[in-house]
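Q: What would this chain look like folded?
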Amino acid sequence: MLALIASEGMKPALVGIAVGAFGAWTLSGILSRLIFGISAADPYTFAAVAFLLTTVALMACLIPAYRATRVEPVAALRNG
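A: My prediction, written as structure tokens:
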């Protein structure tokens, strides 16, 4: 149950991260004038940001999923 809820929540997050990374990479030429100290297409920065966003999205999915597994199914159906 936990894996099902987490995987369903992570699908849109991973698509968003991929689209955002592609958009950032394509627009990096325009933003290169504003970034100081690193190149506009620095792979380490892209990887770090993608890892951070993936971790936050995973925690945002796992915490409610864990709470959902702690509820008795019969009690949830009676109260729902």
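The mean pLDDT is 85.
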